[in-house]
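<goal> How does this chain fold?
<sample>
Here is the protein in question

***
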Amino acid sequence: DISTLVVNNNSVWIHVRFGARTFLFTGDTVKKTKPMGYEMPEEMIEVYADTIGGQVDVLKYLHHGYKRDGAADVMMSLSPRYIVLSTHLATGEEAIRQKYPENDVKFVNCGPRTHIFACDGEQLTLTTENESKKGT
């Protein structure tokens, strides 16, 4: 019997550092896969802590941001300025607001609008456009 630590089980995490700003785009890491066991986001954070650096400006929340992820503590441990949820039906914001009512993190919900982050290495700005303006 061989013990295996599963880190990044069919999931992609992308970390980008541009000047003083950091971005972390997480994948769907909270899945039970036989025979590899249950992968937790804490393992990814622990293994890549030196790379991630403990804080990110823009964080794409695990999976689609559903409350059932139970990842609020791990996501908030990175002290994000913005949390991106990849569906307009996500309940992740509700779960985080209940657990961290004093935190002023801004949520960006990828629903019916286009959201554009612009960064020059120092300044980080967010522009939100109506879907109807897309492509004009």
